[in-house]
Design a protein that fits this description.
The structure holds two protein chains of two kinds. By secondary structure, chain A is of the alpha/beta class. Chain A contains seven helices and ten strands. Classes of the chains: A alpha/beta, B mainly alpha.
Chain lengths: 224, 201
């Protein structure tokens, strides 16, 4: 469960978010909006990467202002650019790196890494240099590095922007199968089809909130 | 650059299975022995031993050559300079020492995962906790340094392409400014990604 209570975010002299109030218990939530509408800031609020200037954000029953580190352990975050998320030289090492702080036995780490790589189609790339992967494979690797921690909530900030059609479809298929609550910020409207709820942001405010069909129709209208 | 960015060659040889700490200790001992060997014949024997270790590692000739290739011109220049100053025997001894030390270091690199190397480093640095040094942060710093090499190389290539497209190939400023801005932006994004992975607590 994610709850925004009258959230304002001000960066410098600019109001990025203006009074967002929403309760998000749904399994699949999409967020759309024009560039600069505050979508990415909204996503960052969910795991405490950004903090509200006023108001509060509650995730998994915890206030992000007071429990950011604890929340991050339960909320995975996938960024647009996978290059910024890959830390280790090879694929398996990067996924294992996520588990470092858990201090699990080596066999357990290897088992979990192999399992997540197999699930996301990277089993044959375990020992490959991460920077040799294609853009789509890098995004899948970034996803593996998040999912190996088995988060309760997954936030994705424009996960398909740098991907070709095949990898975009693969991400969409994977999204459908994930048991977690997933919040996706995206310009990729077909990705949001079948979601439980879609929010439309415009100039820092929620201007539409409903089913994908209703919300996307409203988004198309304000964009025309 | 490949030595830094993923030269590990997967395998199951005895050298692959050897713990990273043992390999690093062995490397230090072998380099000391190389310094103590004073004749070309003894160093030829050492070269045969290094070749034998590569064969034992079963990494292939291409991977073996990739370890010493970056120093080939340096070795030629060193040999020429030494020949001029200490004679042909001294030149052969010095050059062989350097090339064999590089080859041995390369052998450790291609048979050891970076994560194993960093875990060993973390263990070695554990006593430094008492003076306030966090071994995890040191190994994270090294990981990020290694990882940044291909990222910055790719960024530099993209900036050069953009320069060519705009016809300003010779401008240092047109190269440096976007490279520095891109590097800072990458550092910012990486910091945020590390926080998102829970590595800032």
């Amino acid at each position: 469960m994610i709850e925004f209570a009258d959230v304002h975010v001000r960066l410098g002299s600019r109001d990025v978010l203006r009074g967002i109030t929403a309760c998000l218990p749904e399994r699949r939530v999409g967020v759309v909006g024009a560039n600069g509408s505050g979508k990415s800031t909204l996503a960052r609020l969910i795991n405490g990467l950004a903090l509200p200037t006023s108001g509060s954000v509650t995730v998994l029953g915890l206030d992000t202002r007071r429990h950011a580190a604890k929340i991050r352990r339960g909320v995975g975050f996938l960024f647009t650019d996978p290059d910024a998320q890959i830390v280790m030289p090879t694929v398996a090492e990067d996924v294992a790196f996520s588990l470092r702080r858990k201090r699990l036995p080596r066999e357990e780490v290897e088992r979990r890494v192999a399992e997540v790589l197999a699930r996301y189609g990277l089993a044959g790339h375990a020992d490959h240099p991460a920077h040799h992967l294609s853009g789509g494979q890098k995004q899948l690797l970034a996803l593996c590095s998040v999912m190996v921690l088995e988060p309760d909530v997954l936030v994705m900030d424009e996960p398909t922007t740098l991907l070709d059609l095949r990898h975009s479809r693969q991400v969409a298929d994977l999204l459908r199968e994930m048991p977690q609550q997933v919040v996706v910020v995206s310009h990729d409207l077909p990705l949001l089809a079948g979601f439980d709820r879609v929010l439309v942001l415009d100039e820092g405010r929620v201007v539409a909130d409903g089913t994908p069909d209703e919300a996307i129709a409203h988004y198309r209208k304000i964009m025309s | 650059m490949t030595g830094l960015t993923g030269a590990y060659v997967p395998g199951t040889s005895p050298l692959h299975r050897l713990p990273a700490g043992a390999k690093l200790g062995g490397l230090a001992a072998a380099c000391t022995v190389l310094v103590l060997l004073g004749s070309p014949a003894a160093l030829a024997g050492a070269a045969a031993a290094v070749a034998g270790l590569y064969a034992l590692a079963r990494v292939g000739v291409a991977a073996a050559w990739a370890q010493v290739r970056p120093v080939r011109w340096f070795a030629v220049a060193l040999f020429a300079l030494q020949w001029f100053t200490v004679g042909v025997e001294g030149a052969a001894v010095t050059t062989l020492r350097v090339v064999l030390a590089v080859a041995l270091a390369g052998l450790v690199t291609i048979t050891t995962r970076t994560s194993d190397m960093l875990a060993t480093l973390e263990r070695c640095l554990a006593p430094a906790r008492f003076v306030g040094l966090d071994p995890f942060r040191v190994s994270l710093l090294l990981s990020l340094t290694i990882r940044s090499v291909p990222v910055l190389t790719g960024l530099a290539a993209r900036v050069r392409e953009a320069q060519r497209a705009r016809g300003v190939e010779r401008s240092l400023r047109a190269f440096a400014v976007p490279l520095v801005v891109g590097a800072l932006r990458h550092a910012d994004a990486l910091g945020e990604a590390l926080s998102a992975r829970g590595l800032d607590d």
